[in-house]
Amino acid sequence: MTHKIIIDTDPGIDDAMAIFFAFQSPEIEVLGLTTVYGNIPVSMSARNALTLCDIAGRQDVPVTKGVALPWVGPESEYAHFVHGDDGFGNIDYPPSTREVDPRSSAEFIVEMARKYPGEITLVAIGPLGNIALALRLEPELPKLVKGISIMGGAAFVPGNVTPVAEANIWNDAYAADIVFSADWEVKMFGLDVTLFAPTDPAFVDILAEKNPVMGGFMQKAAQFYIDFYSQNRDEKVCFFHDAFPIAHLVKPELFEFTRGNIRISTDELNRGQTVVAPVGTTASPLWTEAQFVQAATGVKHEELFQLFIDTYAR
Ligand code: BDR
Ligand code: CA
């Protein structure tokens, strides 16, 4: 079965890894890359997404520019210290000369959902402002799409920006609240799975060997990111968070989920916390009346990494 997807993204090293993985997967048809601020400002996200399409020879894939600011509050602090000044690990890669699509990211999502009702899976791997805006433009969006998978959150583990919050959700907590509360059951791939599946640096060397163009780009771009993740550790490690929801579409049997009701904190202290009450663990209507989520809580690491390698090798 082929999955039509739209990737909502802020590329970003692990976003790049995920996008190339999707392009290489015969089971996946990428309808567009909708960009959002997050790791970097939105204009850089859009430019980087165009560059990734160029590298992959996929200039047929539309790239749109989306929200530049959180739903509430000032401009975000970007994660240049994780992804480099250019979002690609400071490798000075020549920018694309292609133009972005004139539609906004939210408009594009709504237009595609109306064009292919019931067929599209939204895969959000950045902050959730574009999806929240698409829900405002088209309140029937949950009925129009097949599903939504998100890289974000931390259900039963600590956060990576604050003790309770993961970066994508922390970056736009009000938008996340709108998205998780909408009339769909989000599949959430949070730090519960992504931070418990480190790869060693040889992984990107293998990607480069298997696929000199896309893997070669990943090998160069990831060095800065690997250094960030390897601080205060004895061994070098790397985490490719954003590729998880796409891998799930290709091989769902690699993942385990916990179903529960979810609430997103928007107060300043706990901003971006994704609290999940597994089904049957509370009778409080504050929780039982909240929307359901499927939170990924287990993954077969070795098979997942092999899937990435085999797919890059195609
Ligand atoms: C998430 O935050 C970003 O830095 C990554 O691209 C990923 O989407 C991980 O917390
Ligand atoms: Ca991302």
Automatic annotation (TrEMBL):
PANTHER family: INOSINE-URIDINE PREFERRING NUCLEOSIDE HYDROLASE, URIDINE NUCLEOSIDASE. GO terms for biological process: purine nucleoside catabolic process. One of its GO terms (cellular component) is cytosol. The keyword Glycoprotein does not apply. Residues 5-305 form the Inosine/uridine-preferring nucleoside hydrolase domain. One of its GO terms (molecular function) is purine nucleosidase activity. InterPro entries: Inosine/uridine_hydrolase_dom, IUNH, Ribo_hydro-like. Keywords: Glycosidase, Hydrolase. CDD domains: nuc_hydro_CaPnhB. It comes from Alteromonas lipolytica. The keyword Hydrolase applies. This is Nucleoside hydrolase.
